Amino acid sequence: MMENNLTEVIEIFLLGFQVSQQLKMFLFSLLLMIYCGTICGNLLIITLVSTSKNLHTPMYFFISQLSISDILVISDIVPNMLQIILNNGGSITFVGCITQFYFLGASETVECFLLTVMSYDRYVAICKPLHYNVIMKSGYCVILTTICWVFGFSIVLIDMITTAKLNYCGSNIIDHFFCDIVPLLELACSGTHIVHLEVYLLSIPIVFVPITTIAVSYTCIVLAILRIPSNTGRQKVFSTCSSHLTVVSIYFWTMFSVYVVPTKGQSATISKILSLLYTVFTPFINPIIYSLRNKDFIKAIQKVFYKNEI
Fold this sequence. Notes:
Helix content is 76%, strand content 3%.
């Protein structure tokens, strides 16, 4: 039997948010409402895209795939977090912790790829409108989304296996509300150099390639918009990609704040708040941005309610 401070970690305790009872109940109620709203909003988008003929286009197909990804992200985090808030902390098995880390990483990676594909779709629609129907066929869109899902869940598997094989001993307390790569590595007794190297290498296809592709796509889009003679025409064309650009900006800004910007000197509270933004609030905001600002979605919703009234 090993000494107590070297005992293998088989269970992890998540501290969550150490706040007063009143603030705890407010936070619990707020997160519960956000979770229910996110699930309902994204399920509504998936249902409308599947049933409404007006929404059977590549752009809305990709939005529905993004909604599936958002449901996976928030469902992986919030149910367990609600329990942690109520109990002022909570335990999770090491296997459960690694599983949570994997599904969050995989879902977020899929979202990165989907946002990239959506920027390509907007590029083709605006810069090559005459060839749009030829290029963005339904079969091609299915292939693109399949690649996003398969590649997303496969590439994170590498990091998950390497992280799981590390030796964990001593303290089993994580000052966070979910199992993330940074707090997990802090519990490891063995060297984490390989994992850190993997994280840097995997960030190239997961983060930097998508950002570069999106930047190039929107550079071409902006140049194409500037060539349009009338201001009305420019605004109309830009409105077709403004929602996507808003989601991309929010998503990658929060991801960079958590993982890329140096965290030394950053308090645990700030780190948790930033993590809340991309795991909870971004999936909640996405359906609002894509539906409330979209006339096609509003018309589809009105048709559904009109049929129900009849």
